Amino acid sequence: MEIYSLMPQLMDEGYVLTRKTARRFFKEEIFPSYLDWERRGYVDRDVWRKAGICGLLCTMISEKYGGVGGNILHAMIIIEEMARSECALPGFFTHSDIVVPYLERLGTTAQKERWLPGCVSGDIITSIAITEPGAGSDMRGVQLRATRDGEGWILQGQKTFITNGWLSDLIIVVANTSVNAGSQSKSLFLVEAKNEGFQRGRLLEKIGQKAQDTAELFFDDARIPADALLGSEGQGLQYLMQELPTERLLVGIWAQAAAEAAFERTVEYVFERKAFGQPVGNFQATKFALADIRTELEVGRSFLNNCVNSQLQGSLTSEVAAMAKLWLSEMQGRVVDRCLQLFGGNGYMWEYPVARSYADSRAQRIYGGTSEIMKEIISRDIQQRHMQ
Questions:
Q1: What separation in angstroms does the CA of 40 have from each of 91, 130, 205, 213, 214?
Q2: Could you give the angle at the alpha carbon of 121 between the alpha carbons of 118 and 122, nearest 5°?
Q3: Crossing angle, helix 236-270 and helix 353-361, to 10 degrees?
Q4: What is the CATH superfamily name and number for domain 241-387?
């Protein structure tokens, strides 16, 4: 079973070329150095520039700013090829398909002209800083403050678990700009890593996704100019809620593709590995396990493709996006666990990609909103429909 979206429109020449380019890039530029980057905790900056040269960053950004003016299908292809290479670098699509679209959608002409070309080329790496030690899935719990100071702002507080936090040059920071304003209290700011008062904390050591840099960020009276405000003051929470369905769909895309990659590798292994004089794949227990996994993958792929089509049509709802993230990330966990089991003792060895996939997959049920929060969103929609 080959990882493929199996959507008719992806047979168009432009999408086929994107897939070929992405497959070659991950095979030649990422995979050979990946284990070294895992040990170090971050990739070479030059890799970002190479991805930019290949046209693999910010594919949904307008051609006016150097992008290809694509859509989520381009992002889907690149994520699938990343999964095929068995390299976990969610920071690539966090930058391209989550952070930078905020800038294109909300930024002033001056902000877009200043930042977007570098984001597309890979010269500028971005991150989004929401999570704090006391605020994760509940974005209303953000405590970092932004206070007006003359012609600018002063930021005070800290963030944690920030993807691309170690390498990022430009950070979208969620901060409180008013007290007791409820949903109108949060705003978004563009903070440069070189800003006075900004400091990176630890490069965090995770159980998986080890090559992906994740860091703490500190803002100690960090001074930023007035034009660092992104969008309108007080609308930060609304902006975040508008983008979350796409973010959660992207997590679901990776979950499906990574599960398919693990399955491909497992099928190869069980029919090559022998026990009691025959391939492990000949045993009924193995065949039934493969049948279960294949069925889950087919169900997941069908649901995922429906969600992607809804996103293309502008009709993907928050609750359906939550369903996609919930089911697909939980399915990924089940599938990778069963695949590891079929590798026996080898599956527990880090040199085998299935072991790394097992560790990498665990975070999928946490970031972008935990599985429990996804259930809250889905059940709230059920309740509201019942009350109508």
A1: 16, 25, 10, 9, 12
A2: 85
A3: 150
A4: Butyryl-CoA Dehydrogenase, subunit A, domain 3 (1.20.140.10)
User: Homologous superfamily of 8-124 in CATH?
Assistant: Acyl-CoA dehydrogenase/oxidase, N-terminal domain (1.10.540.10)
- The residue type found at 248 is R
Q: How many CB atoms lie within 10 A of CB 385?
A: 9
Query: What are the start-end ranges of the H helices in 59-163?
Result: 72-84, 90-93, 100-106, 109-121
Q: What are phi and psi of 161, to 5 degrees?
A: 60, 40
Number of helices followed by number of strands (H, E) in the chain = 12, 10
Q: Examine the residue annotation and report whether 86 is marked as an active-site residue of this protein.
A: no
pLDDT tens digits in sequence order for the chain, 388 residues long: 566 677 888 889 999 999 999 999 999 999 999 999 999 999 999 999 999 999 999 999 999 999 999 999 999 999 999 999 999 999 999 999 999 999 999 999 999 999 999 999 999 999 999 999 988 777 788 999 999 998 899 999 999 999 999 999 999 999 999 877 677 899 999 999 999 999 999 999 999 999 999 999 999 999 999 999 999 999 999 999 999 999 999 999 999 999 999 999 999 999 999 999 999 999 999 999 999 999 999 999 999 999 999 999 999 999 999 999 999 999 999 999 999 999 999 999 999 999 999 999 999 999 999 999 999 999 999 998 988 8
pTM: 0.94
Count of Cβ atoms closer than 10 Å to residue 323 Cβ: 20
CATH match of 127-234 with 2.40.110.10 = yes
How far apart (Å, rounded) are the C-alpha atoms in residues 218 and 160? 9
Helix (H, G, I), strand (E, B) or coil at 244: helix
Lookup result for tokens 């895992």: 38
Tokens of 3: 């990882």
> Scanning the structure block, which residue is given the tokens 């973010």?
247
Domain boundaries, the chain: 8-124, 127-234, 241-387
Among 86, 104, 216, 247, the one annotated catalytic: 247
Residue type (1 letter), 340 = L
Helix (H) or strand (E) holding 279: strand 278-279
Residue showing tokens 């040199």: 351
